[in-house]
Amino acid sequence: MLQPSELKPQQIACLAAKTPIIIQHGGVGTVKTTGNLLRLWLHINQFPNSVFLIFAQTYDQLERVFMLEWERQIPDYEYKHIKNEKKILLHKSGSVLFLHYAEHTNSVKIMRGMTISGYMMIQAESITEEIFYHEANQRIRLFGKEPRPEYLRLIDANPGNPGHWVHDFFINKQCARYLPDSEVTRIKIRTTAETSVYSEATIEGWRRDMPAWLFERMVNGNWTHAEGRVWDTYTTFPHPANDMKGFAASFDRLIFGCDYGQDHPTAIIFVGFKAGIYYIFDEYVARDKSVRSCLAEVEKRLESWGFDPKMRGRLWVDPSAKGFCKEWNDIPGHGLYAYQSTHKGTDPVLNRAIRIGERLRTQQVIISTLCHTIIQDCERTIWVGNGKDKIDKDTYDPHAMDAFGYCFTQEVR
Question: Is 312 helix (H, G, I), strand (E, B) or coil?
């Protein structure tokens, strides 16, 4: 375990914090997870028999960020890691740490049945708002009640769009009525040789090579908009977790888009239309899935929203996806027919991007906070160079937004 002389300034601040909520956010390489882990270790030894949830969006984040650092810092004789049960037992304190990741359906189901005394959220910027509210935060008392001292929330995040829910909720104090300053310690960290694992020479190299907006995020730790984003404005709506069926029943019609992947993830987008607005209300993104498996997942999701899983409808796909359409349509017993979309304009990719951008700016297309990949596409898709006539797909390829584009350009009124 790190000795006091080895601690970085932000780690000392984290260990000294007395509030029940601690969020560390800022530049890369600033060992935010390590600081929170050490704070957690002190806490569970101070409050025996605690039950903590350690969670992230993906398995890689959990294993390569949290577990790797846990094994570095905590002697193996202090705990027992039961991998098949996804938990760590602490020998001395009798505390238990449950390890779960949000992209795994069974993991989410297990979290829903848990009662915990606190949590540690890894790379919160990649976790959806619904997972935070419904799978972690509702397990403990937080809003409008006097917190007990053993109820500890530890969050780390890398900066992104200033409209991100993590920024809104924890950092810019819009939710001060829920999170008074007396309950929150906010630790913003800038990447320097003193605070990070990187040298000044490396950081200066980034200054020369990175776009200014990216340097602001990755090094200065500021929540900024990406410069040159194709979709520079978008609006989200909260996932109606408590009334999914009632919300979905209000749509006038449904449309579906698909970008089927051979060498990239398959993305299927669920869109509802009502009162002049297109609601992107669900998404399915997965690698290496057969056509039949994709159809089964679509039917499963339709049923969860209260629709007939065999309902009739149109699934718009890439204009070149003739083989996919045949394989999909040859599967018996379903009502969702796949159609090849048609190219529109001399540059169909640019045409789709511009039309979608216009509707995003006027809030005629809004996105559920459940749709993490669509939001990520809005955040990361940029123009080539300084122009606005070609999307830089070498840097980031927005397959989910492509799927939406196929159905949107065919069905839009």
Answer: coil
Residues of the chain with CATH 3.40.50.300: 4-218
The superfamily CATH assigns to domain 4-218 is P-loop containing nucleotide triphosphate hydrolases (3.40.50.300)
Length of the chain: 413
Question: How crowded is residue 60: how many other Cβ atoms within 10 Å of its Cβ?
Answer: 11
Give the model confidence (pLDDT) of 352-392 as tens digits.
888 888 888 777 899 998 898 898 888 888 888 766 778 88
User: What is the residue-wise DSSP string for 61-127?
Assistant: IIIIIIIHHHHHHS-GGGEEEEGGGTEEEETTT--EEEEEETTSHHHHHHHHT---SEEEESSGGGS
Token pair for residue 24?
Answer: 């560390």
CATH 3.30.420.280 residue ranges of the chain are: 236-411
Its pTM stands at 0.61
Closest CA to 256 of 337, 324, 334, 322: 337
**Residue located via tokens 């606005």:** 388
Judged by DSSP in three states, 153 sits in strand
**Beta 313-317 vs 253-259: how paired, if at all?**
parallel
- Determine which helix (DSSP H) or strand (DSSP E) holds 366, and give its type and residue range: strand 365-368
Q: pLDDT digits over 191-231, tens only?
A: 999 999 999 999 999 998 877 877 888 899 998 866 678 88
Q: Which fold has domain 236-411?
A: Nucleotidyltransferase; domain 5 (3.30.420)
Q: Which of 186, 178, 134 is nearest to 159 (CA)?
A: 186
